[in-house]
Amino acid sequence: MREGEFCGHTIKSHGATVARNHMHDWIILLLLVIIEVVLNVIYPFYRFVGKEMMTDLKYPLKENTVPVWAVPIYAILLPVAIFLLFYLRRRDVYDLHHSILVGRPRPDFFWRCFPDGMDEYDRWGNVVCHGKDSVIKEGHKSFPSGHTSWSFAGLGFLSLYLSGKIKAFDRRGHVAKLCIVFLPLLIASLVGVSRVDDYWHHWQDVFAGGLLGLVVAIFCYLQFFPAPYHTEGWGPYEYFRALEELRANPQLNPPANGLTLLATEGQVVNQQSGPHSNAFIPLGHNSSSSVVDIESGRRSAFSFSSLIGTNSANSHIRLIFFTGKMPEILLGAHTIRSHGVTVARKHKYDWLILMLLVATEFILNFIEPFHRFVGPGMMTDLKYPLKSNTIPFWAVPVIAILLPLPVIVMYYFIRRDVYDLHHAILGLLFSVLITGVLTDAIKDAVGRPRPDFFWRCFPDGKGVFDPVTMNVKCTGLKSVIKEGHKSFPSGHTSWSFAGLGFLAWYLSGKVRVFDRRGHVAKLCIVFLPLLIAALVGVSRVDDYWHHWQDVFAGGLLGIAVASFCYLQFFPPPYDIDGWGPHAYFQMLADNRNVDQSPSTNTNGLTLQSSELDNVYIQSHHVMATSEGISRNASPILDGMESGRRF
Questions:
Q1: What is the pLDDT of residues 401-432, one digit of tens each?
Q2: Which residues lie across from 334 on neighbouring strands?
Q3: Is the pLDDT of residue 633 over 50?
Q4: Could you give the CA distance from residue 469 to residue 457 in angstroms, rounded to a whole number?
Q5: Three-state SS for 9?
Q6: ∠ CA 583-589-593 to the nearest 5 degrees?
Q7: What is the three-class DSSP state of 53?
Q8: Does residue 144 have a cis bond before it (omega within 30 degrees)?
Q9: Which phi and psi angles does 417 have, rounded to 5°?
Q10: In the prediction, which pLDDT does 131 show?
């Protein structure tokens, strides 16, 4: 871009409008700040720490190389300063606004708990600390590393931002650009290394914190900006959308502080185009808006291009959407009363398989699991105290099934779409039951002892072992011992991720989380079910019913099955059809084929007026023109050179 090309979109002219469009995102941001403050005040879970575990917890107590107050400075203020530099250079308020938006003991826990070096333990073998309360509290916050996660979140976002601005992936062989991009990541990595060197974190804490921060940074960045390797990766989606909408309707007279685009700016944007770039094509020349998002379940006109088509007896039809809102599908046309029996009958075999899965799950819970060999030397990790469940067994199906169901039913009452209701419920049940069968089958086959196995096997605390094999000879209740051999994988976690993971997929399609409008608040809605599932998994480790590997494997199994089941019924959430099930669109296509007359236009893409009336409600966002639909054409430019948009 030239130096002054963006001077038409400044804080003064467009700042209030842009901020108003993201009002809910700023509210969610303030809520997150409050939650962060509250979480720092809450006491962490005090995990069991036995004498044998002190080997890895006797590192010396040191001061922080990177103090706590410095973390928000380099994670937030440093990137913001760079964002401001780009704004002052290019005067693009869209770019400025969109860029801003367990209780594990620490390695030095011994000296936090026993400052005088004199250790003390209770009858269960747990520590009895006599150090300063605030120091002990901080000693239970090892996993994951906060310094590292904050660093990779802020500096990872900055790295992505810089890679787009300097076109690090322009394939011109300028490796020096990679050095600029990797510099923030190097700083974040050094912060993580300092946490291990200061003995405030184990290496697993740092690795998990870095991964967490980087993943969140990538998700947030891609809500506002195209991927850095994209031809439009130098600017935010919202800026290009503003240009498109004004270019689509030059007759609009926007207010003085609105989205004003001078004719000369449009010319500057289009000049010097490269061999692989597309210029701004006037909408009267067989181009169509590339805005393909869906509003409140509305289907993009592009996805119906195979149904609507053109009529040779009439003028060609082209649908233009100025606000990105699509024509609504007729509400109440496909209800339980009108189509429920038909839809259920088509899936009668699926419901039979579902019943078979229920019976299989019931049987697997009565099978005696494999009793794995447990010798005296293995008891170090199996002597955690025997506790009751924070989340009881009966609550698991409630969380996995009954919690997502109200959301699915609520959406049905809004849209009156039995296809969505049936397929969402069927997909949810399949997700949970397939996961349950796989989980219990693996549990019975593996037979891994739980972390509290010692007290299950020897309630009196006196270990008894076979003199020849040295295997345990348990003296506890048979039912308690049986349950003690079902550690891997975690059933609570797998069920939770299966049900709530399916709900997260479902919500992401309904709220259009990938609509590229920069509403990160939508991510909070989608991540909330996953957060609940993750907390269920953490509770299993805190209750000493599972090792962390059990929880990780259970969560991975649940989310994988949920993903497969969801994609059997619904398109991916980032698809333009992601708001509805495959079967609904297939039904529309079948009806179109049945109703199609023999005198159809040679293009074969005519939809009868009666069918069109059943599918659409007329929207004031739609206008007819004298051109045909061109699904692939787009006024968005595909090429750029040295930051210029062609």
A1: 999 999 999 988 888 888 889 999 999 999 99
A2: 417
A3: no
A4: 17
A5: strand
A6: 140
A7: helix
A8: yes
A9: -120, 105
A10: 86
Asked if residue 313 lies in contact with residue 600, where contact means CB atoms within 8 angstroms, the answer is no
Is the pLDDT reported for residue 600 higher than 80?
no
Cα(331)–Cα(256) distance, rounded to whole angstroms?
38
**Residue type (1 letter), 248:** A
**What pLDDT does residue 13 have?**
65
What does the pLDDT average to over 10-28?
71
Mean pLDDT confidence for 105-131:
82
Whether the upstream peptide bond of residue 489 has omega within 30° of 0, thus cis, is yes
Side chain identity at residue 66, one-letter code: V
With cut-offs at 50, 70 and 90, classify the pLDDT of residue 265.
very low
Alpha-carbon torsion, ordered 155, 160, 165, 169, to 10 deg: 140
- The Cα–Cα gap between 228 and 134 comes to 44
Hey, what are 364's tokens? Answer: 């697997």
Side chain identity, residue 294: I
By three-state DSSP, how is residue 88 classified?
A: helix
Q: What is the token pair recorded at 342?
A: 């038909």
Which residues are the active-site residues? 492, 546
DSSP state letters, 350-376? HHHHHHHHHHHHHHHTTSPPP-----G
Structure tokens at 61: 């107590």
Higher pLDDT, 222 or 486: 486
d(CA 111, CA 567): 51
What per-residue string of b and e applies to 429-457 under the rule 16 or more CB within 10 Å gives b? bbbbbbbbbbbbebbbebbbbbbbbbbbb
| C-alpha separations of 579 from 137, 293, 384, 522, 560 in Å | 46, 10, 47, 14, 21
Contacts of 467 by beta carbon, 8 Å cutoff, 6+ apart: none
Cα separation, 309 vs 318, in Å, equals 9
pLDDT at 645: 38
The DSSP string of 139-173 is HT--SS-HHHHHHHHHHHHHHHHHHHHTTTTSSS-
For the chain, the distance separating the N- and C-terminal CA atoms, rounded to the nearest angstrom, is 9
Three-state DSSP at 585 gives helix
Give the residue from 73, 133, 139, 70 showing the smallest Cα distance to 104. Answer: 139
- The partner residues of 92 in beta bridges, in order of sequence, read 9
Average pLDDT value for residue range 537-558: 93
* Mean pLDDT taken over the chain: 74
Q: What pLDDT, on a 0 to 100 scale, did the predictor assign at position 89? A: 59
Structural tokens at position 304: 């119906």
Positive or negative: CA dihedral 378, 384, 386, 390: negative
Tell me what percent of the chain is helix, strand and coil, each rounded to the nearest 5. Answer: 55, 0, 45
3-state DSSP assignment of residue 545? coil
Tokens of 405: 């169901």
CA 68 to chain centroid: 28
Pairing of the two strands 640-641 and 644-645? antiparallel
Strand partners, 645: 640
